[in-house]
Write a structure and sequence with these properties.
Layout (H helix, E strand, L loop, with lengths): L4 E7 L6 H9 L6 E8 L5 H11 L3 E6 L3 H12 L4 E4 L5 E2 L3 H12 L3 E9 L12 E5 H7 L6 H4 L4 E4 L20 H7 L2 E13 L2 H5 L7 H16 L6 H22 L4 H17 L8 H12 L1 H17 L1
Parallel strand pairs: 1-2, 1-4, 2-3, 6-9
Antiparallel strand pairs: 4-8, 5-9, 6-8, 7-9
């Protein structure tokens, strides 16, 4: 018999989209799975929909709990999972029918501890098919490096992946924080001997116009916290070849959040200064490992000296690049 796969789906206020998600999971060509629906205290019609699907298909298990957030719901699912492999699906997203089968094949055929695929933004249409279909393998160290490539988002998020369950033996998602993937995935890669990457779009990440245009969320400071933790982890574990790229990516993202705070939360002086201190420290911290590109270093120093001028110059550069 094929390996059992536990598909963990946190559910909260997605009544309009939940059936579509569940139908895509139940329609998988890989059939030996358990579907763990974690109703995270949803106050709409989701609990009833979950129970309805459990009555219709014995592979569906429902856990009703008080609201604990996305991390808490995922952690509950991990604790209840019985499969050899775990997969996470967000309850407003949907899957290509071969999602589980192709990721499982990639693990089995290459002897990998986990597998990853491409994903596409969708608004309800079938998932666009892109990619060569090729399967590549990476060491855990290379997977950490992949966090900093142009397609790095494929490697950060939790839900376009298949994991051997033992990877989560000592790891859980941080409670009460968003950007929980940023705080967790790199720890998974540290344990991985080998991972497989399937160059095919098998997961549909559902977006609405409002989700694209929504304003700054002050909870994005959780990204800064996760990034700072990752830098410390990489340094402590000896990933010296990643430090320059990691520090630069962290500085760039933190500066973006700094300006969001300044625009939307003028009272957040303490948080703004915290970010400036992290950039200042990064300029010193990079020295044992190399140096930032000269233009980048000058930019960071200008940001520290005069954020307003730095921002105007950055916007001008982006505008000029957009015209090219």
């Amino acid at each position: 018999m094929k390996d059992l796969i536990s598909v963990i789906i946190p559910v909260f206020r997605v009544e309009a989209y939940l059936r579509r998600c569940l139908d895509s999971v139940l329609g998988q060509t890989y059939e030996n799975m358990e579907i763990i629906l974690v109703d995270d205290g949803s106050d709409d019609g989701c609990p009833a929909i979950c129970d309805e699907y459990a009555r219709k298909d014995s592979r569906v298990k429902v856990i009703h709990q008080k609201n604990a957030g996305l991390s808490g719901a995922r952690n509950t699912g991990i604790g209840q999972a019985e499969g050899r492999y775990l997969a996470f699906v967000d309850s407003d997203d949907y899957l290509v029918p071969e999602f589980l089968e192709r990721l499982h094949e990639a693990c089995a055929e290459t002897g990998s501890d986990m597998s990853v695929c491409r994903w596409e933004y969708v608004k309800g249409e079938p998932v666009p098919q892109r990619g060569t279909g090729e399967v590549k393998t990476f060491t855990g160290r290379q997977m950490l490096a992949n966090l900093y490539i142009s397609d790095g988002a494929y490697f950060v998020v939790a839900w376009n992946k298949l994991y051997k369950r033992e990877l989560f033996e000592k790891i859980r998602y941080p409670l009460g924080r968003i950007h929980e993937d940023e705080a967790t995935t790199y720890r998974i890669y540290h344990q991985v001997r080998q991972a497989a990457y399937v160059d095919a779009s098998l997961y549909g990440y559902f977006v609405t116009p409002s989700s694209i245009t929504r304003g700054f969320n002050p909870r994005r400071l959780d990204w800064v916290t996760a990034g700072a933790e990752r830098i410390d982890f990489l340094e402590q574990k000896g990933y010296t070849e990643l430090m320059v790229r990691a520090l630069q990516a962290f500085a760039d993202g933190s500066i973006d959040i700094y300006f969001g705070l300044r625009d939307e939360m003028p009272e957040s002086g303490k948080e703004q200064e915290w970010i400036r201190g992290l950039i200042r420290r990064g300029l010193k911290r990079v020295k044992p490992y190399g140096r930032f590109p000269l233009r980048t270093e000058i930019g960071y120093r200008l940001f520290l000296a005069c954020p307003g001028i730095y921002r105007r110059l950055l916007e001008r550069v982006k505008s000029e690049n957009g015209k090219q």
